[in-house]
């Protein structure tokens, strides 16, 4: 017996947003995101080490990296090195406030690990952004 129940499941992350399944313009997947996070956090760790700052300084430097580079380079250094870019859902410039909201929620961690079917964390949903492969 088969079921004719329709589900809201997508064939791939980003399909509901009209994005391609893979390649340029597709959703940045978990491996790339984690790699970018390690690069950015590692950079913040190294920078703070030059000044012998504490763990709060590392977090502040990480946040500064995000807030400065997201609107200027369409992604943090980690995002760009991992082949991703941050865009608004309508494709326009992210502006200054979206990176700030996104970063504050990213630092809290919980919003970043709760995803929807399109692999967008709550930090991206709240800021109206999506992380795509460049």
TrEMBL record:
InterPro entries: Pra-immunoreactive (IPR051791), RDD (IPR010432), UCP021697 (IPR016795). It holds the Pfam family RDD. Its main location: membrane. The keyword Lyase does not apply. Residues 50-128 form the RDD domain. It comes from the Bacteria. Coiled coil: none annotated. Keywords: Cell membrane, Membrane, Transmembrane, Transmembrane helix. The keyword Membrane applies. It is found in: Cell membrane. This is RDD family protein. It comes from Microbacterium fluvii.
């Amino acid at each position: 017996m088969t079921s004719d129940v329709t589900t809201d499941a997508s064939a791939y992350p980003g399909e509901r947003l009209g994005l391609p399944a893979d390649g340029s313009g597709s959703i940045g997947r978990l491996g790339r995101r984690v790699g970018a996070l390690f690069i950015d956090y590692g950079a913040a760790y190294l920078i703070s080490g030059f000044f012998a700052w504490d763990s709060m300084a590392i977090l502040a430097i990480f946040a500064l990296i995000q807030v400065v580079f997201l609107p200027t380079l369409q992604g943090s250094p980690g995002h760009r090195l991992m082949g991703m870019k941050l865009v608004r859902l309508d494709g326009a410039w992210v502006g200054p406030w979206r990176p700030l909201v996104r970063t504050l929620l990213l630092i809290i961690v919980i919003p970043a690990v709760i995803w929807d079917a399109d692999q967008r964390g709550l930090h991206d949903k709240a800021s109206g952004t999506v992380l795509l492969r460049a």
